[in-house]
Every structure is written in C-alpha cells, then in structure tokens.
C-alpha cells in the first residue's frame, strides 16, 4: 500500500493514519504514513500535527494492520486500512445479511417447505410454478364479446 501524500510504499506492519483531509472524495479516505504525519510543515494546508488529534490504534477488520483514525470524525463501524480491505469487509457483511434474510417459505401449490433462491420465490419447483399458471389460466373467463352492437340499418 502507498501513502497518499508521499507515495512511499508502506510495510505490512506500518500503522495507517486516516485523517479527514477535506471534502474531496479522494482525500476523505486517505491512507497516510507516520512519517508524513510527523514531517508536514506547520501551518500548511496538509499539516496533520496542528489540526489533528488521533485515537488509539484499532486493528483493521480484515488484515489486522493498526489503523489510527482522526478524532474529529466518528469512529467507523468497521475499521479498515484501505479501499481493498473495505470492499472485502463490506461485501462479506452484505452476503451475510442477505443469507440471514432468506427464510424458508411454503410452496403455494404443494405446501412443502423450501428455501427460495430469490426474495420473491413462491414455488418450490418449475413443475409447481407451471401447475399454478395452468390453474390460474383455466379460471380466467373468456374475453367478453363487444357489448356495442352494430347499428341496425333502417
């Protein structure tokens, strides 16, 4: 991983500083090395010493690397060190959430319990789905003929 300010490659054990560097999307989630935090000139727009107070290090939820967040911002629910770790963690959370939401359903034709493959699944198999379609098609009345009769010729 590279420091966003000096572009230096950081070792796997190096702590990552996560300052809030403004409202630009590239700068909000910046990963900064400890050297950049210590050597920035005071008073510069990037000065991390003057305007930042730091939280205690938290381990990254995916790789365990120490992450030190800015105290001005709320601590995130899932502390991650990089964009890659964030994508992996949130993807796993989404998959777990979707799996937990799937409940067992009762087939509307044969009344057997099944686990639907989609959130709107109603039938346990294609055979039951086809049976329900044919039953519904046989119940629908024939289309009525036009009620407007042709005007009679006089």
Based on the model shown, name its key terms.
3-stranded mixed sheet, alpha+beta, 5 helices, elongated, two-stranded antiparallel ribbon, single chain
Walk me through the structure.
With 154 residues, the protein is an alpha+beta fold. The protein folds into two domains: 16-96, no CATH class; 102-139, no CATH class. Helices cover 31% and strands 8% of the residues. It is built from five helices and five strands, in the order βαααββαββα. It has helices at 25-28, 34-39, 48-51, 83-101, 126-139; strands at residues 16-18, 58-59, 66-69, 105-106, 113-114. It has a three-stranded mixed β-sheet with strand order 1-3-2, with no helix packed on it. The protein has a two-stranded antiparallel ribbon with strand order 4-5. It is elongated and about 95 Å long. The termini are far apart.
| Spatial arrangement of strands, main beta sheet | 1-3-2
Radius of gyration: 30 Å
- Principal-axis shape: elongated
Q: How confident overall, as mean pLDDT?
A: 80
Termini separation (Å)?
93 Å
Oligomer: single chain
* Beta strand count: 5
Structural class: alpha+beta
Q: SSE order, as H and E?
A: EHHHEEHEEH
Number of domains: 2
| Helical content class | 25-40%
Low-confidence stretches: none
Number of helices: 5
Strand content: 5-15%
Largest β-sheet summary: 3 strands, mixed
């Amino acid at each position: 991983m590279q420091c966003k300010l000096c572009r230096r490659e950081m070792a796997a054990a190096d702590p990552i500083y996560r300052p809030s560097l403004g409202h630009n999307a590239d700068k909000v989630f910046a990963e900064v090395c400890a050297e950049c935090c210590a050597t920035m000139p005071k008073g510069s727009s990037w000065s991390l010493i003057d305007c930042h107070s730091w939280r205690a290090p938290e381990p990254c939820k995916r790789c365990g690397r120490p992450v030190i967040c800015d105290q001005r911002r709320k601590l995130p629910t899932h502390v991650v060190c990089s964009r890659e770790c964030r994508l992996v963690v949130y993807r796993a959370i989404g998959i777990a959430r979707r799996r937990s939401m799937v409940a067992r359903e009762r087939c509307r034709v044969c009344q057997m319990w099944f686990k639907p493959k989609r959130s709107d699944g109603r039938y346990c198999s294609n055979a039951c789905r086809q049976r329900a379609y044919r039953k519904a098609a046989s119940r629908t009345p024939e289309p009525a003929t036009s009620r407007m009769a042709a005007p009679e010729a006089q």
